[in-house]
Amino acid sequence: MNNTKMVNLALKHTMLRTTGEWASAVIEREGARIRTPLKGEVTREDASIAGPHLHPQGEGEATEQRAEKGQGSKGNSLFTKEQQKNPADLLAPSASVATATTPTSATTSSCGTGSTEHTAERSTESLSTRKAYISAQTGKPKQVAPHQTTTRSTSAQVAEKHLMELRHVLEGRKSKPITPYNVEAWERKLREAGLLEEYGDVPAGLRSGFWAGIPKIHQTFTPPNKASVRHHEEDFQKIMDTEFKSQCYIGPLSKEEAESLLGPFQSSPLHIIPKAGRPGKFRLIQNLSYPHAPQPQRSGEAVASINSQITSDDFPCTWGTFETVSLTISRLPPGSQAAVRDIKEAYRTIPLHPSQWPGMVVRINESDFAIDTQDCFGLGSGAGVFGRVADAGVQLIRDGGMGPVSKWVDDHIFFRIRKIFLSIYNAQRAKWAQEISAEGGRRQDGGRIWFRGKLQPDEQPEEFDEDCKAVLQDLSGKSPRSADDEQFSYSMEDIDKLFTQLGIQVEKEKDILFQVLVPYLGFLWDLEKKTVALQPAKGEKYLSAIREWQEREVHSLEDVQKLYGKLLHASNVIPSGRAYLTKLEAFMASFNNKPHAAHRPPKHTDADLQWWAARLKEAPSRSLTRPAEVRDLQAFSDASTETGIGIIIGNRWRAWRLLPGWKTHQRDIGWAEAVGFLLLIQAIVDLGSEAWARGDCIRVFGDNRGVVEGWWKGRSRNWPTNLIFRKIHEISKSNGLQFCTSYIRSGENPADEPSRGIYGDPQLLLPKISIPSDLTPFVADFDQPISTKPSPESKAQPATKKLKIETHLQAAKIRPVSHPPVPSTGSATPLSSSQLRPSGTKARDRLRLWRPVTARNKLDGNGNPTNLTEADLEAIAESIQQAWAPSTRETYGTGLYAFHLYCNEKGIPEEQRAPASGVLISSFAASLVGLYAGSTARNYILGVRAWHILHGVSWRINDAELEALLTAAEKTAPRTSRREKRNPFTVAYMVQLKAMLNMSDPLHAAVWACLTTVFWGAARLGEFTLTTLRSFDPALHIRPVDVRDEVDKQGRKLKVFRLPRTKSAVAGEDVSWSKQSNEADPEAAWDNHIRVNAPPDDVPLFAYRDDTARKTKHKALTKNKFLSVLKEAASQAKLSPLQGHGIRIGATLEYLLRGVPFEVMKVKGRWASDAFLTYLREHAQILAPYMQDNPDQNEEFLRLVMPPVVRR
């Protein structure tokens, strides 16, 4: 099997799974497209054969498909529409007839479709005639019909005869499908092995044809073939000859004849491509994924591709993946060998059930067709249908005592053991079988069947392609063999014997006989050294592909997919290479619905390819040896957005601060966690022989799943985080170490405290680490002094006043390690991990869990005891807490944190912090002036006030003085603290974004539906998206079950969304929209989301299908994911990205422009009055031009939005 086929299938079934969440792309390489389409309902006619590949689970009719007249290319021979037909000349003893029926100078009939006039003579350059092939044994002697000029009546008779002969052939094919396999031998062998119950559908399918999931066709659809068929006319004709002579094709026949025999049918465009590494050889591709989107017909109905109506996951089989083969080789006894064998014409040996034929018609030229009765490459279920037969075959091999054996489609690799190790190895297999059984046995991921073993030391499960129950046998005494073969359990002759019995034909010239160094799947496997490398020819081919890429400035989607597939294949040998594929992945995603357009690659792509070229020139290899154990140093890392990064190794620690401005240019908490991972790795390396030895695999812990699981894949889609991963790869390689990440809950992570500024014993401090130069602008050692600069707005003020929270941390907690702070009443001491402020408290819980010294008690106003209990007091606090939304509590918690840091700096005793004096609160407020936005300063003060109220502490503040300070904070807020202007979304803007989205992609469908719902519902984005994938709470978040349809008194339909709870309405609120007559119609978007994603009732409303996920089929739409999709779409459309809040603003403006009264819009958008007017003032310049022709409305608008000249 050549590499083209291997990589195409690999990308779908295995490599995408091992490299993470690449759900959005369907890999189309070398002209072949294989994908997992949407499941469609199908009807099976005349199929009464048992077995999973013969009987679909549900019966129904697929979407009706309308006819489309094919527009073929004009040309000579097979490609000339005017080529006429004669009936086939039949050969009695032969099963296939191929006869040239008309010489160059002859005239031909049109089989009943021509006129009564004589046909004109035509000459052709190469193929002068239409060949008539009718593939079946007729039992008649060979007859050569004389060629003569015919009239209409004669032509009609000939056509009728031709049709009768075709019908006879089809009936014969139904009763006796074409296959080289010995069906009786298969059935007998399976019965003897006790496998007939499991694989009974295999002999049944070989007798009557296999069900492949092709639905009943309702409308004829015959799109033209691709230009490559015309460009390689002679090669195409050779392929046609071969297909007809092998009896896979029945015909040729006209469209009318095909409809008479099959009813409505559907053909798929053909094109041919050169076979890799085989000059002059071509592969025929039947593009069963065409059309790539439902194609409207004249009738108004749409035609869908054959593949889009097949669920390939319904046709699973085993795959000998890189991981599976690696595991097998790593555990082979010394001296073991391997052989490789390729099954001949694998797919074409599998007959399809007659009910599938209408979807397998092949268009030869503008007027001729053929019926393909066999499985083919490119059919969505094709690999699984053949794989089912191949699975039965390898099970018979194992039952015969041979193995281990694995397969990848038609490529089989056989391993054999020296007889002296056979009993030991069988004992090991028995142990694996028990472990597999304990783990639940057979698993299915998409179209792949596999068997899960125990967890390996790196916490990844063992992956087998068998249950390991078959016992290997010593077959050396079964027949004479060479001295070399005598040492092993079986030989190639034993395989040949079984294959001959079953009728399995092989490509003998491709056989790789048993040896220790074998090529397989494009890799070179060394069984003696237990290593794997790219085959030299592959490495050179991939280098050449990179050089060709670098010679061009722009590239098509096919260019990207080809190169990506090659390098993804190579990343099995070069795992760190996955971190250098992210730009190509992003490039692929940028094409959307324009695969043939040429684009410039993203920035840094060339640098990544230079890295790849350097690695490929090194001809690298990879060890297959698995670590016997993982060294656990109790190494942990964590990051906090408020403070910094902390690491723990054993009982030793170190910490760093995140500097102002770090959270920009895509750097987020994931990036900070990855930096923590990097610093932890470097700290381990710096410990040297004290902690590790070369070759070790070391476990490290973190509480950020994105980083932990991202490292399993070796890369991150976030560019800054991916750069950190690259650094870790380099450290790992240069020190000969492996690192495996494990997830730990945040509350159990010991690195949480140092990441939040709660530091340990200075005597247990880890050695200082050299921070990479590109990280020094964002990360600093916890004890590094902070330089402060006076604000340009107030240069006369002392620099020490301009302190942010980080500066408070510096003054309050950070002292030179050699001089630990001595607690005293007047000194600045760190926040204590005491009963008052428990360590590890999240910001949203601080109001409740951080307690003042003086708090609510069980005494009345006169100091007398009451009958109240502690539980009663807790209930009061718990109830008051519900007055603030979770997001508000989080903001207030941050303000409370800042307040206590300020008190630490000033040495304020605990008893003076609550109740806080007016002068303390004013002083705290003054410290915020000029450093924070006015709203931030106000929220920090309100946080301290809320803390007082919640715990029953009096709040005695000079309101006028405090308000003056907060006003000063608003006026002196630094420019860096001001948010970017939230420009509004418009309908035109959204339509431009839509053009960049793929409505058949689950994620894009969910995003578009969410965008239109939030916009036309004038809702908050956070009401329809989640903060994180795991934050879903049915009591807080909307689900599909919360949606209903209503009709108003005028008969207008409304879609109503019941929000279970909102920031301003604990009992929930309704949001609604109605159909819109533009391209941003929410109804169409909603219907598309339901069709593509079909979210269950118990998941978030805009959950989208994630077919690559191993644990769930639907993934929640988070706000970050939503915005990232829109940002990418805006970039492709060359638009400026807008913020999420701009959706609600834009909706308000859109409705106002339509004449919706201000007060009505304020209610629909659920605006607080002040906020409503604020946004209207900001966008008055947008509204005013549209209102100039309506003085009354303009006057009302100006009255509402323009601020008064004098405030009284």
Describe the structure.
- This protein is of the alpha+beta class and 1208 residues long.
- Among the domains are: 322-345 and 379-532, Alpha-Beta Plaits (2-Layer Sandwich), CATH 3.30.70; 535-623, Alpha-Beta Plaits, CATH 3.30.70; 631-781, Ribonuclease H-like superfamily/Ribonuclease H (Nucleotidyltransferase, domain 5), CATH 3.30.420.10; 835-918 and 928-977, no CATH class; 987-1201, Intergrase catalytic core (hpI Integrase, Chain A), CATH 1.10.443.10.
- The strands form 11 sheets. A 6-stranded mixed beta sheet has the order 28-27-24-25-26-29.
- The longest helix has 24 residues, at 152-175.
- It starts with a helix and ends in a 7-residue tail after the last helix.
CATH superfamily of the domain at 987-1201: Intergrase catalytic core
The assigned structural class equals: alpha+beta
Work out the radius of gyration. Answer: 36 Å
How does CATH name the architecture of the domain at 987-1201? Orthogonal Bundle
Oligomer: single chain
How many strand units? 34
The helix content is 25-40%
Keywords: DNA recombination, DNA-binding
GO molecular function: DNA binding
Biased composition (Polar residues): 125-156, 824-838
Organism: Panaeolus cyanescens
